[in-house]
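Q: How would the structure tokens look for this protein?
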Amino acid sequence: MPIGEKHAAKVMGVINTSPESFYKGSVRTGEREIAATAKQMQHDGAHIIDIGAMSTAPYLETLIPVEEEIRRMKRAIKVVKSACDLPVSADTPRARVAAEAIADGADAINDVTGLKYDPTMAEVVAKAGVPVIAGAYSKAVATGKLAGTLQALRESVALARKARIVDVIVDPSIGFFRKAGKNQFFTKMTDMPWYTRDIEVLNHLDKLAAIKPVCVSVSRKSFIGHLLNVRAEARLIPSIICEAIAVLNGASIVRTHNVRETVRALTMLQLLKP
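A: Here is the predicted structure in token form.
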């Protein structure tokens, strides 16, 4: 799947098999509904499907046993692979889950911690020869200024290079820089409000794109809810606007809960922009 500034932005559809996920509209736990959703996403124009088996939302208590994450992930991958022809990425920060996902046919790994949470993740990805989406993440307190995101991503790119991972995509991890959280998958940040940081990143994605191709996940995120005082179910229109802005600013992949609407919006954007 060709990506980068010379190619139109690709759409990644989200299927969460984790009931604890923040947006319940993305949750699919039964095999029939997982299959139906995958088929619909392909019909609606998605280029890839991202499967999550454990929520990593910082403000939720979402940690589950690794065995349960593996069970959910393996089942979903098998169902999606049998239901459609789209490539699949496995959204997990755990190397054991990634290894099992790859063994069952995952075509890429999406690690919100940028290869840093699990010290064996880079090795698993490199051995399999699959691409990785590396999220901006720091175990130490980081600045919410753009420099903090750039530093975190450069560290992940360096880890990937050291492990000889060939294909690396970076993700600014919208929503994952906060003053406090309830799991280990967010970056502690104290120098600005989290929603201010998210806006700053979206406005300067071109700086990230200078490092590697960028994947952005802004769909129904909490900064939208905070700014507009609306629940996740009511964040569709502002999500689409943010996604369009992200592409204009350099994003190569848009990860979304709203495949049909996002595909239509980005198609129109492609037709209109000079």
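Strands lie at 10-16, 48-52, 88-91, 108-111, 132-135, 168-171, 177-178, 187-188, 215-216, 253-256.

The first strand starts at residue 10 and ends at 16.

Upvote if useful.
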